[in-house]
Structure formats: structure tokens, C-alpha cells
Amino acid sequence: MDLVSGTEPQENIVFFGTDGIRGKAETLFTAELLYKLGFFSDKVLPKKKPILIGQDSRLSSPKIVNGLADGLMASGREVWLLGLCPTPAVPLLINKYDAAGGFMVSASHNPPEDNGIKIFDFNGEKLSSKKKSIIEKGLQEKSRIISNTRNNCIYRHDLLKEYEKSLIQTIEIEDFQGTPIVLDLCWGSATACGESLFQTLGAKVTSLNAKPNGNKINVNCGSTHLAKIKRAVLETKSEMGFAFDGDADRLIAIDGRGRVVDGDNILYLWGSALKEKNALPEQRLVSTVMSNLGFEKAWITQGGILERTPVGDQNVRKVMVEKQAALGGEQSGHILSTINGLSGDGFLTALQISNICKKKGVKLERLVDQSFKPYPQKLINVPINPNINKDYLSQSRRFQTSIKKAQLAMGEEGRIFIRKSGTEALLRVMVESSDESIVEFWSSTISKIASEEFN
After folding, report:
1. Which residues are catalytic?
2. Most buried one in 2, 237, 239, 374, CB count within 10 A?
3. Euclidean distance between the first and final Cα of the chain, in Å?
């Protein structure tokens, strides 16, 4: 297929959110959009090199992959289809094989009916805003598609073994010596290699949701639904558990007592281990505005520096590069390390936590006991009208007054963070304080007002 440009572009529309393009698969990803996305992505990536495409297990993923491949091949590109794989496998393989770039088809932690597309540049980094704006301009052109697609598509699922080898090379012990570990593979990308990876390393693995299933991905499982893995860790008397999201670029851990070990805990534990080895420059960690105040105060108390950024792994990455930090991430379990070029990777994180425990000869629960005491924190996702924008939020006197009252009541022992989701029609209301009753009162009060004002 070729793209024949017609008249003037349509009115300016922003297709890319905080992490690529994401939405309801059936309505968002039309054949024309997918073809044009592939066609115009070719224009911003280095020429004469292949482009890689990976995917999660959603039922809509093959259609999206094929549509992108058609647009790329129409531009003369060779396309390598990686098949089912974790998101971090894409940037790693781009760098290893000197590819022009790549796509990951996944909506991460979103429900099965959603899907999304992340685009990576030749260096394995997410595409820059400048390049995304060039693609967006092309997507808005009124164009006619002529079909003459070239057959230049190669299936390369074998490359996933290269990703697995790279992970194994990051740990310092020979194996996990039968350590009992539970994995919640979320019916998604993690099923591609999670079980075999930990078994190869000698762990005694109990797997949940361990087959790819596009109807079940993220449904009451994975890093956003922890009840089942908590129960499994306790029932099997495992030392730890790891719950991945749909595309396996992040995780939440569970210790042997069934306690949640989130991104803040992971940064504190991993950061402390690096600090002991003098491998953490300036004892600096980078996290987001969502990180717990208890984590921040504990890290500063032991002489560390915590840099806060806006939500989003690209914001964390930017500050890590600027400050030459070795470790950073988000409370949600998206952790970035210089080990793999600052690419969020749930498997890398899980292996590093396991490695720290085995090297120290202690169970994860003991490390959690030695960690910080988090401030009570509550995050409420409030459904709102999708047309509500940031300006409207600031103009609501009732909503803004409730926030000011809450801030006055908490003083320096608490904080409030409000943000509109970049991928869903949700307003995220987060309240934390040293007093749990205050957290409950103000989180419910502000959320109720938001629901009334913005629907």
C-alpha cells in the first residue's frame, strides 16, 4: 500500500499520551490509522535497517501488529516480528542488532479491551516529542491508501532467548538454590519467558495465570490485583512472590508474610544494596511525586538524596540522565537501572531483588522489616468526563477549596497530589499523612467532590 496525500491536514489532534498511543482497540485502531502510523514512523527512524515489533497477548494485538507492518513494508522496510514478549525485550534487541527502532503493542495494565502502541527509537529510548509530533502531523493528513504491500516480514521469536540471556548475566550468584518463589504472569507478556527464566536459575516456581490469554490479561491478577498472589505465597510458604503487569515492564513484589513490596520499597532495598557497594553515585535515587513521604524521609535520614519528578517513566529517565543516577522508578513498580540502559523491566527487577536476598542470606521479609515505615497513603481513581481538562480542574472553586483545606489540616506531615491520567478518563487523587484517619477523611472528601464536579 502507498499513501497518497490529499488536501490540508485536519485540526490538530494529539494522538500520543504519556506512554504512547492507548485506548479502546476496536474503535481507536482502524486499518487506516495503523497503516499511517507505520508509514510515517518510517520517516523519523534511520533508513536501511529493520524495525522490530513485539506484542502482548491481547486479542487485538495481531491485527495491530499486521497493520503497522503493512505501513512499514510499504516504505520499503524489513520488519522483524518478535511475537509475544515483554516490552523491555524490544529496546534491548534494537540495541543488540542495531535496528532502526521498534514498536511494542500493549496497553500495559489496562483491561483486555484496550490496547496501545509504544514506539522506540534506534537507541532503544522512547520516541522524542519532536519525532512524535512529526508522526502526528502525518496521521492527520487526509490521505488515500493504495495497496501494494511488499512481503518483507520475518518472524523472529527466537530472539527472545537473547533477552533471557541478558537477564541471567546481571546476577552474581550461580542459582537460587531451590528458593520457593510465586510468579503471577498476568496472562500477558510475562508468560513468554517468566517460568523458564526462574526455573533455569534454580528457583522452585509456583506460577499463576501462566498462559497467554487475551481475554483475561490484567483481570483480577497481576501487579494491580494482588489478593491471589498474596494467598499463594502464604499457602506455598514461599519466600517471595512477583506480580507483573500486562507487558512485564514493571512488577510488585510480595514478601513471605504476604506484605506488599512496591516500587518505593524496591528502590529503598536495591538502593541500599548499591550504596553498600559504593555503586550509587551521590547516594541519589530518582522517583516521582507519587512516592511515599516515609520513604523520602528515611532515605534522607541515612544520607541519601531523593529527586522527585512528574509521573511517568520518561520523566524519571530524563532526570536520571541529567543527574547521572544509577537507579530510579515509580511507586507502581516501574524501575529503571543503568544495568540495562534505563529501560523499565519487571524481570530484571525481580532477579535483582532475589539476588540481593540470596547474597545476603536473608529472606525478603527481613529486608522489608529493616526498611522504612510508610506513611498511610490512599490513591483513589475517580472516573471523570473524558473532555475535562486541567484548566477546568483549576477553575472549580469547590474542588480547589477542598484541597486547600486538606493541605492546611495536614501541614508538613502530609501531602495531596492530584493528576489527570494520561491514558484513561480518570482523576487520580492521592492523600498521605502520618495520621491514617486524616488520609481516609480527605481522600474520600476530595474524591466525592471531584466525582460531582467533573461528571
Report:
1. 108
2. 239
3. 43
